[in-house]
Amino acid sequence: MNKLVSFLKIIADETRLRILSLLLEQELCVCEICAVLAISQPKASRHLARMREAGFVKDVRQGQWVFYYANFDDEVQKEIMQTINNKRHYYLQLNQDLKNLALKAAEDSFCKRS
Fold it and tell me: Mean pLDDT, 10 residues at a time, over the chain (114 residues)?
């Protein structure tokens, strides 16, 4: 039960929900998250650290970059996030974030993966 409460507290924050929603789409580095969401690097890093500590985000180092991805061991949490993402068109900001992600990826301005 504690893990569910922790998860709900994490997604209760708009920025963390937006980041998790993006990370369900693909793994991203901090600079990519900042570019898509138009937030500062310290703000993104602070939220990523909190989600990593709670176990909902993992990271992998590739060269000079650290890429983050969503990590849900609990099926209920995974279903909640998938439901939110599947209904993203109801939420203007989440929908816009996905469009921004596609635009930034098309510009080929993302960090290079090995």
Answer: 90 96 94 95 97 94 91 91 92 95 83 68
Q: Is residue 96 part of a domain?
A: yes
Q: Report if residue 56 sits inside a domain.
A: yes
Taking the CB of residue 70, how many other CB atoms lie within 10 A of it? 20
**Each residue's pLDDT tens digit, 34-50:** 999 999 999 999 999 99
Other CB atoms within a 10 A radius of the CB of residue 71 amount to 16
CATH code: domain of residue 78 = 1.10.10.10
Burial of 16 (0-12, 13-18, 19+ CB in 10 A): buried
The answer to whether the predicted template modeling score (pTM) of the entire model surpasses 0.85 is: yes
Which of 68, 86, 71, 76 has the alpha carbon at shortest distance from 30?
68
Secondary structure element (H or E) that encloses residue 58, with its range: strand 57-62
Phi/psi at 36 (5° precision): -70, -45
Query: Which amino acid appears at position 104 of this protein?
Result: K
